[in-house]
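Q: I have two molecules that I believe assemble together. Could you output structure tokens for the complex as a whole instead of separate predictions?
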Amino acid sequence: MRIIIDAMGGDLAPREPILGAIMARNEFGCNVTLVGQEETIRKILEQDKIQLPPGIDIVNASEVIEICDDPSTAWRRKKDSSISVGLRMLRDGEGDAFISAGSTGALLAAGTMIVKRIPGVRRAAVAPIVPTGAGGAVLIDAGANSECTPEYMCQFALMGSFYAQRVLGRENPKVGLVNIGAEPSKGNELYKLVNSMLTEAGNAGHLNFVGNMEPVQLASEDACDVIVADGFTGNILLKTMEGTASFIVHALKGLFTTNAKTKMGYLMVKGSMGKFKKLLDSRETGGTALLGLRKPVFKAHGSSDAYAICRAVGKAAEFVNANLIEAIEENVSRLQLSQEEQ
Amino acid sequence: MRIIIDAMGGDLAPREPILGAIMARNEFGCNVTLVGQEETIRKILEQDKIQLPPGIDIVNASEVIEICDDPSTAWRRKKDSSISVGLRMLRDGEGDAFISAGSTGALLAAGTMIVKRIPGVRRAAVAPIVPTGAGGAVLIDAGANSECTPEYMCQFALMGSFYAQRVLGRENPKVGLVNIGAEPSKGNELYKLVNSMLTEAGNAGHLNFVGNMEPVQLASEDACDVIVADGFTGNILLKTMEGTASFIVHALKGLFTTNAKTKMGYLMVKGSMGKFKKLLDSRETGGTALLGLRKPVFKAHGSSDAYAICRAVGKAAEFVNANLIEAIEENVSRLQLSQEEQ
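A: Yes, here they are, computed for all two components at once.
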């Protein structure tokens, strides 16, 4: 297996993606191609006195997509950018998955135009795994499409269901529609319609639709395996989880430093804090799949360090081994629901 | 001051609303009217061997709005329900504020039809105070209106701004529009339009619009004072905060019971945990204001116990003293933005 990594994407590029590639090569044994400005990459290797191990090679890409570039057109205007070059390699079979910590918008636009969508899939979606009381769920879409039709969302549900089954190993994944109440009549017009379409898809045996889910249920041990949302709502949900977690961690720090007694108490629980921190650490997730494309494309967090990049490589390798895209391709007819909206 | 309490609303009614009324009478010294089935109320007082203190009276209402009643019409079909009777008393000046732990939908519909909206205000909104790194913010709308026009949302912004100023004591409240990115071009069509309208309202000096806010900023010490959202998105945000907090508290419990050492550690931090728990306790918020009505109407959490009802009375009293409704009434012309949508 060969994983292509965008060496120029993210706040800590190119050093951390380079170090992450080496870490992943050691940990997972897969081959890695670093795509980016070769001269810059070699300079860093020299500075850090690192010999690139066998199994890792560098492919030059002279341009870098910057934060100021229009994400929807950057891939076309910067044909020799690391994202464009890496995705063309992926398309042409010179690697099995592509990972970038660069702009989500640029990666999504470039992925859709270069790698292309699976035939029949209307829109690609961002599908992170979010922590839940049931050991995590696929949230789809978490931000790729701020305007969605009911059909897009039904396709997200089906792609997410395959993902939960093949990658998370959930046997008959419970698919829930995020909403403001349990009853099918809850929510705005879009959500009412999606609820009825997913109910129909569930009755037809295409997926295991369990109805609306309110986000208070995230903590439940019965939380569903797939959380379906339009990209606007899904992104708000994801970022609210991050914001709330960060608020609580901050409050906890205050608590543990109240006085000498609490400080000593902290020393006694500190060892177990690692597991707790891991639950909330975005670096652990590593990479978020863009579902709906013909090849595996992963977005790593913009602030990814070497460890996060390495974790993303692990996720990408799992994804490749799960033959998820083949499963979606084979079942694409199920995605064409009878009540089509567009 | 006299606060009218729905004795029949909520999961723990009527016992907890009754006990909450007594607690509030002792704590805040205000008069309280309990509205509900007098016989049932008296039976509970007898069972608990409680003498109703002076300053609390009972007004009989023979009917109860149940969870199965259609919230939009319940107030009309059950004219002698505690919600309908209590709101008529409020309308007629027989009390200064009304509190119910019953159905939000029924309270909102009844409030709008009986108490009526402030002239010029298009829709009433649910406006809880949510915890933030800056000591809390008004979230408006948190669920009253699943479909919103841009004009509704601009009015929410202005009402929320007055609320933050008069009740939370923020001098020049920072108003943020919840969104999936900081740039004005982010989000769906509704949010792009609201951003431009709020920018205009800000430039005209009607409020202090600070632009889009992503929910990751909730933890920040610079978090805004007012978070504007459509009711669907606002409710998802609110419930995601609750779900995430509950998930983390659960994980913490697991952490503290890992082994003898962590259990001992917990004993040492336990004393300071009170403050932390308070941050996350929905009982502390007590009541959520329904903004936009001619009189103060408060929704208490469905699971409110006596303490939560008592806290809601405190919030309602603050609200009455802040003359917020007068402020909205006087400035209602500001709510009529030039770019009206409906």
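A: One point stands out. Residues 231-256 of chain B form the longest helix (26 residues).
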